[in-house]
Design a protein that fits this description.
Helix content of chain A: 25-40%
Number of strands of chain A: 13
Strand content of chain A: 15-25%
Shape of chain A: globular
Order of helices and strands of chain A: EHEHHEHEEHHEHEHHHHEHEEHEHEE
Largest sheet of chain A: 5 strands, mixed
Strand order of the largest sheet of chain A: 4-5-1-6-7
Largest interface: A-B, 21 and 20 residues
Oligomer: heterodimer
Strand order of the largest sheet of chain B: 2-8-7-6-5-4-3
Number of helices of chain A: 14
Order of helices and strands of chain B: EEEEEEEE
Helix content of chain B: under 10%
Number of helices of chain B: 0
Structural class of chain A: alpha+beta
Strand content of chain B: over 45%
Shape of chain B: globular
Chain lengths: ~400, ~90
């Protein structure tokens, strides 16, 4: 019986984070440009364009060294919020054409082509349709395995997808440097020291010798070099984003004010009927920084819960990681659990009862007057010497 | 048809801003009457100099007063404009 061949398609947008941070149509400029350090992170540059790479600038290089190598280097503020949005948008476009993509990294995804080839009238047409969904600089490659498909996408050119079949996999990889194989760096160094520089050199070795010298890592790389790749895909579950945001009239950096804003966001999201009683399992907290750029943290709960206090306990400590004052705070329920099968307490604490009554009263007032009329005073800078800077009026949501 | 609901103003806003006040002051700059009511007692006085390092410095001389009718009031004189304001402090 003939073995069924699975074909995987990899889409890839090189230097995705840099393209998004630069904005515009996603084209990289001809002058040297690199992503600056993350606010609050180590002083190292991120992705760099080809002009910067020509000066020897690599991701992870310290800023001082990068500027010493290329004084005209322009540093762009990272924008992880926009990167996440752009990556999500790319996955949605792939899903819209019928694919079930597995996100590998921002701007890099993999999906199985088997069900789509007939739908689009052939692999070539499927790749052409895929290429139309990609942003500027995007490439697509198809191959019978996860690794080979990624290498094919990396070698493809814009608007010219590259397809590799099973028989052509080993010759396709033959000239690949051994460092590009999924090997620990010390194993790749050992291979280089032994004079084995390409995947073709490795594939030509007998398996017992590779196993004896390099162990399990070497066996895996040897199989890959011979074109024996894994062809599974773990597609994502398309999210149903529940998102709320608060814009601050002035840059806010006070923890008390931010915690109050977070409480409002939690209450709004928990009250959203689209949640249909499902407790959140993963939350994403993001902020637009006053000085430009954005900040983003994903919080996975050990146990899905819809209890406001437990959500706040998980989120408030993250606010201390904010590197600067912010203009906008956004909270998203990224993933919801199936349903809440938690046993409720038999006797509720008096504090919870009072809170429940207050929330019911607030709901009634809102029903009578409409949204935005019920407000609460939030102390944002109690130490301010000008009284008008001490408090804010914010919507009372629960 | 149900009555049209009044649209709320901006979702988040400041409170406690100064309101213009009618204050009469003596030669020493201390208020003697607020809104036509005589000042019975000056409980406290302080100055606020803020933002002098910016293009919009704030210089205020605050007074906490007890008026003749027993009410407490906090007023200040803005050094830049010379006007008097009442404020919750």
């Amino acid at each position: 019986m003939a073995r069924r061949t699975h074909t995987l398609v990899c889409v890839l947008v090189p230097r995705f984070e840099l393209r998004v941070a630069i904005g515009g149509d996603g084209r990289l400029p001809a002058v040297p440009v690199a992503l600056g350090p993350d606010p609050g992170g180590p002083p190292a540059v991120g992705e760099a364009n080809a002009a910067a790479a020509a000066f020897g600038i690599r991701p992870g290089m310290r800023v001082g060294e990068a500027i010493a190598r290329c004084p005209q280097l322009r540093l762009v503020t990272p924008d992880p919020g926009a990167v996440a949005d752009a990556a999500g948008s790319l996955l949605e476009r792939l899903e819209a054409m019928g694919a079930a993509p597995e996100p590998l990294a921002p701007g890099r995804a993999l999906f199985a082509a088997d069900g789509l080839v007939r739908l689009h009238g052939g692999l070539r047409r499927l790749l052409a349709a895929t290429a139309t969904t990609l942003p500027e600089g995007g490439r697509a490659g198809a191959a019978p395995g996860r690794f080979i498909a990624q290498v094919a996408a990396g070698r493809a050119r814009r608007g010219r997808p590259l397809a590799v079949d099973r028989d052509g996999a080993a010759p396709f990889l033959a000239q690949l440097p051994v460092e590009r194989l999924p090997l620990p760096p010390e194993v790749a160094d050992e291979l280089r020291a032994l004079g084995i520089r390409t995947a073709g050199d490795l594939a030509a070795l007998p398996l017992p010798a590779v196993a004896d010298r390099l162990g399990r890592d070497g066996i895996g790389a040897w199989r890959l070099a011979r074109g024996e790749d894994e062809a599974w895909v773990c597609p994502r579950t398309p999210p149903e984003p529940l998102r709320e945001a608060i814009d601050f009239p002035d840059p806010a950096g006070d923890e008390l004010a931010l915690a109050q804003a977070l409480r409002v966001l939690c209450d709004r999201l928990l009250g959203n009927p689209r949640r249909r009683g499902r407790p959140p399992r993963t939350l994403t907290l993001s902020a637009r920084l006053a000085g430009g750029g954005s900040w983003r943290r994903t919080v996975a709960l050990r146990e899905a819960t819809a209890e406001p206090r437990r959500l706040r306990d998980a989120l408030v400590p993250r606010l201390r990681e904010l590197p600067a004052a912010i203009e906008r705070l956004e909270l998203e329920f990224t993933e919801l659990a199936a349903s809440a099968h938690r046993q409720e307490a038999l006797i509720r604490a008096p504090e919870e009862l009072r809170r429940g009554r207050a929330a019911e009263a607030a709901r009634q007032v809102r029903a009578a007057l409409g949204e935005g009329h019920l407000l609460r005073v939030v102390p944002v800078a109690p130490w301010a010497r000008l009284p008008e800077e001490r408090d804010l009026l914010v919507p009372y949501d629960g | 048809m149900p009555p049209r609901r009044e649209q709320p103003r901006s979702a988040v806003r400041r409170i406690g801003g100064p309101r213009a006040a009618c204050v009469s002051a003596g030669e020493d700059g201390i208020p003697v009457a607020v809104g036509g009511r005589a000042v019975e007692h000056v409980r406290d006085e302080w100055r606020v100099d803020e933002g002098w390092w910016t293009g919009r410095p704030v210089q205020r001389r605050y007074f906490e007063l007890v008026l003749a009718d027993g009410q407490n009031a906090v007023v200040f004189r803005d050094a830049a404009s010379g006007r008097w304001y009442a404020q919750r402090a």
